Target: Potassium-transporting ATPase KdpC subunit
Amino acid sequence: MTLLRLLIFCVFSIGFLYLPAVLGFAAVVAPEQSTGSILYGPDGKPIGSRLVAQKFTRDDYFHPRPSACDYDGQGAAGSNLSPTNPDLAARAAAIAASYGATPDHPIPADLVTASGSGLDPDISLAGARYQVARVARARGLEETQLKGLIHDISRPIAGLAGSPILVNVLELNLALDQLSAAR
Model:
């Protein structure tokens, strides 16, 4: 009988007191993150989360970091390959070659290496700038327009004060679509 009372107490306190208290606290402290940081398209429909990378492969979009889990949130994982593993080096070399990287025009490391989760939504400022020429050519835009767009979207690490160094790829591509539609 004591175990049954304990079970009822735990279910009630955790399910009906603790959980709503934590969700309420999150809604007050971080309202956007507590609802998944969903981004909406012009039609008002959700198109993705600011917190999770999405796969962009077309030349007219900025590309995110590579993903060891093919951008599948249910299988989030790093590659588990050590930095000395030849498979990791071969994959990085193939990605660098697909971007047209050369010794005179080296590719930023974040564009050839997956994050620990495989779902990092941000690239470095250098990674975004590295892709400007390709995207400008594919969209028929001026590179200066894209550099301005990147500057507007970039932010410091964790949103703290400092120089902007991160760019959210989904936000950048949405702004890119708006810029192209306005032309």
Notes: The chain has a mean pLDDT of 88. DSSP finds seven helices and four strands in the chain.
